[in-house]
Amino acid sequence: MSCVQESIRDFNIGEAAKASGVSAKMIRHYESIGLIGEARRTESNYRRYNRQDVQVLQFIHRGRALGFSLDQIRDLLALWKDKQRSSSDVRALAQRHIDELNQKIAELQSMRGTLERLAASCHGDDRSECPILEDLAAP
Hints:
Blueprint: H1 3-8, H2 13-20, H3 24-32, E1 40-41, E2 47-48, H4 51-65, H5 70-81, H6 87-121, H7 131-137
Antiparallel strand pairs: 1-2
Helix pairs in contact: 2-4
């Protein structure tokens, strides 16, 4: 298939899913919440996607892989489509996400430290006493 044919080619939902890395179920979900536009339909009511639709799905897939929320991705998509945008707006959104990730990392490190202390205090033998369970059951 030539490049021109590929650029105007339509994809069914399975092909769009494979090309974008987004499952067909999630494509339907993104459509239902308005993250992506409604798909064009064939006379048989099958969804059809063009190359640009697949590119948007790839954008969403990459954003999700970086941990952006759906609302953040919605904002990023709006910025991506706005050719008059300021890159400072994009950077600010990314920085807020970095701050959120750093907070989550700190929370996870704290949980890991607590679990490491509890696991170290557990005898791990035939005794029924277990500091891990006692800590979980504490008021």
